[in-house]
Automatic annotation (TrEMBL), chain A:
<keyword id="KW-0813">Transport</keyword>
<feature type="transmembrane region" description="Helical">
    <location>
        <begin position="103"/>
        <end position="124"/>
    </location>
</feature>
<dbReference type="GO" id="GO:0005886">
    <property type="term" value="C:plasma membrane"/>
</dbReference>
<keyword id="KW-0472">Membrane</keyword>
<protein>
    <recommendedName>
        <fullName>Phosphate transport system permease protein PstA</fullName>
    </recommendedName>
</protein>
<feature type="transmembrane region" description="Helical">
    <location>
        <begin position="250"/>
        <end position="275"/>
    </location>
</feature>
<comment type="similarity">
    <text>Belongs to the binding-protein-dependent transport system permease family. CysTW subfamily.</text>
</comment>
<feature type="transmembrane region" description="Helical">
    <location>
        <begin position="209"/>
        <end position="229"/>
    </location>
</feature>
<feature type="transmembrane region" description="Helical">
    <location>
        <begin position="136"/>
        <end position="160"/>
    </location>
</feature>
Automatic annotation (TrEMBL), chain B:
<keyword id="KW-0592">Phosphate transport</keyword>
<dbReference type="Pfam" id="PF00005">
    <property type="entry name" value="ABC_tran"/>
</dbReference>
<dbReference type="InterPro" id="IPR003439">
    <property type="entry name" value="ABC_transporter-like_ATP-bd"/>
</dbReference>
<dbReference type="InterPro" id="IPR027417">
    <property type="entry name" value="P-loop_NTPase"/>
</dbReference>
<keyword id="KW-1278">Translocase</keyword>
<keyword id="KW-0472">Membrane</keyword>
<keyword id="KW-0547">Nucleotide-binding</keyword>
<dbReference type="GO" id="GO:0005315">
    <property type="term" value="F:phosphate transmembrane transporter activity"/>
</dbReference>
<protein>
    <submittedName>
        <fullName>Phosphate ABC transporter ATP-binding protein</fullName>
    </submittedName>
</protein>
């Protein structure tokens, strides 16, 4: 067999292997979504969204779960966005590029990869016990904010790095201070990338369960939270709770709740992708 | 009257000694051209005049530079104020990704001026001076990025003029432009000379000959020759100047 022919065989083998791998992932996902949809879709109605949890599957709803998720989403955003963006701006624009900076940089990248349950333990120690927040929304939001902070910091830095030097020079050349240059030019120019990172980070927070279990979020909460100090549950916890029940009715409920959760994350990711595309088109000055 | 005076300026990027003992003076309301082969230090010297090199890691300067009698590297000098007096136009047009109006008004806005009448007046005056007003007066609130390259560069000039500087530094302002836009910029320089002191870096010797009163020839960090433009181009004193302007190297 000639070398050429051999190469061609390797080439086409790899191509078909690649196609198989791609479709394997897609097919599994499709089967999963199809299953969930056939099971859950008929369960989604106004009552399901507005009912409190119940021992009878047909009466149980996800009101406490989705309001909890909304609370967590809002509080986590309020805590993590200013901190993360400010840290990113400091590290990228003000921090000296020395040894310490590169150590911090590596650490932040590593933090983004720490298993979420570790953040749960951290949150339990700091927010639940030391700061005495208990198993409240606030403790949960702070814990999740810590979890997604590295993502926001890294996204902010990347977005700032992509802003062309000529823009900063134009601003400095006009007599702007560093802060004016950041506030009026660099940050707005980077805002698309930063926003994309924030939304992706928040959509990760929405799906997290493990750290919330650790800090003591409850699966069964019979009331809608009205202050950040209230106990709470979130959609993934509710799903986790329902799938572990024996009755088939609860499995259907879980499927319906999964559809809602998927919808939320799909919409958030959709917005992120939309913003990224829009932003990429704009960055051609 | 001496407008800009540099005394024994040396500049370094790390170990790289890029300006060697440069001394020269420029009069008010004149155009001075810097010429010389790529990498000879023209931009570095220009950027010393409004301290744009301050941010570059490893940059170091020795010697004194006076503008309108003030030592611009003095500790008491606020670099932001210096740059309002000494405006800069860059090689590649770099308008902000904002409207034409916001671009031109930026310098006043960062000085805290919010009065709409003052801003509108300054924007119109500056765009007039930059010979752009008639082309854009109906689209002031369109993005500056939607303009042609030549128009963008004139927005950048208007932006620099809006804060009423005394001095305008231009680093190859026409090198990214087509011949017609280049001609417009050159005409503009001739007009602005009445009110501003202009220093222009250019690669184009005809351009230097057309627009400038005096020309400085730089070579490998040295100021080889500095003279009236006409004199330097017709009767160069130094052999290297002659070689350069006759195109024997460069
Ligand atoms: N930011 C910088 N960092 C390090 N070296 C630089 C920097 N800018 C310019 N240089 C060096 O300084 C020398 C002079 O550059 P420059 O002033 O840009 O020359 P010119 O404008 O005449 O082409 C060159 O050798 C260049 O490599
Ligand atoms: Mg240059």
């Amino acid at each position: 067999m000639t070398k050429l022919k051999q190469n061609r065989i390797i080439d086409s083998t790899f191509k078909y292997f690649g196609i198989f791998c791609t479709f394997f992932g897609l097919i599994v996902l499709a089967i999963f979504i199809f299953n969930i949809l056939t099971e859950g879709v008929q369960r989604i109605n106004w009552d399901f969204l507005s009912n409190l949890p119940s021992r009878r599957p047909a009466k149980a709803g996800i009101l406490t779960a989705w309001t909890g998720t909304a609370w967590i989403l809002g509080l986590t955003a309020i805590i993590s966005i200013p901190l993360g963006v400010a840290a990113g701006v400091y590290l990228e624009e003000y921090g000296k590029k020395n040894r310490l900076a590169s150590i911090i940089e590596i650490n932040i990248a590593n933090l983004a990869g720490v298993p979420s349950i570790i953040y749960g333990l951290l949150g339990l120690e700091i927010f639940v016990r030391t700061l005495n927040f208990g198993g409240s929304l606030l403790a949960g939001a702070f814990t999740l904010a810590l979890l997604i902070l590295p993502i926001i910091i890294v996204a902010t830095r990347e977005a700032l790095k992509a802003v062309p030097k000529s823009l900063r020079e134009a601003s400095f050349g006009m007599g702007a201070t560093k802060w004016q240059t950041i506030w009026y030019q660099t940050l707005p120019a980077a805002s698309g990338g930063i926003l994309t990172g924030i939304i992706l980070a928040l959509s990760r927070a929405v799906g997290e369960t493990a750290p919330l279990i650790v800090i003591g979020a409850l699966a069964y909460v019979p009331f809608v939270a009205s202050t950040p100090m209230d106990e709470f549950t979130v959609l993934p916890m509710q799903i986790f709770n329902w799938v572990s029940r024996p009755q088939h009715g609860f499995v259907i409920n879980a499927a319906a709740a999964i559809i809602i959760l998927l919808l939320i994350t799909f919409i958030m990711n959709g917005i992120a992708i939309y913003l990224r595309n829009k932003w990429q088109k704009k960055v051609n000055w | 009257m001496k407008h800009i005076e540099a005394n024994n300026v040396n500049a370094y990027y790390g170990e790289n000694h890029v300006l060697k003992d440069i001394s020269l003076t420029m009069k008010a309301n004149t155009v001075t051209a810097f010429i010389g082969p790529s990498g000879c230090g023209k931009s570095t010297f220009l950027r010393c005049l409004n301290r744009m090199n301050d941010y570059i890691d490893g940059f170091r300067k020795e010697g004194d530079i006076f503008i309108e009698g003030n030592d611009i590297y003095d500790k008491k000098v606020r670099v932001e104020e210096l740059r309002q007096k000494v405006g800069m136009v860059f090689q590649k047009p770099n308008p902000f990704p904002k409207t034409i109006f916001e671009n031109v008004a930026y310098g006043l806005k960062i000085q805290g001026i919010k009065n709409k009448n003052i801003l509108e007046e300054a924007v119109e005056r500056s765009l007039q001076q930059a010979a752009l007003w008639n082309e854009v007066k109906d689209s002031l609130h369109k993005s500056a990025l939607s303009l042609s390259g030549g128009q963008q560069q004139r927005v950048c000039i208007a932006r620099a003029l809006a804060v009423e500087p005394s001095t305008l530094l231009m680093d190859e302002p026409a090198s990214a432009l087509d011949p017609i836009s280049t001609a417009k910029i050159e005409d503009l320089i001739a007009e602005l000379k009445d009110n501003y002191t202009i220093v222009i870096v250019t690669h184009n010797m005809q351009q230097a000959a057309r627009v400038s009163d005096k020309t400085a020839f730089f070579y490998m960090g040295n100021l080889i020759e500095y003279d009236k433009t006409k004199e330097l181009f017709t009767n160069p004193k130094n052999e290297r100047t002659e070689n350069y302007i006759t195109g024997r190297f460069g």
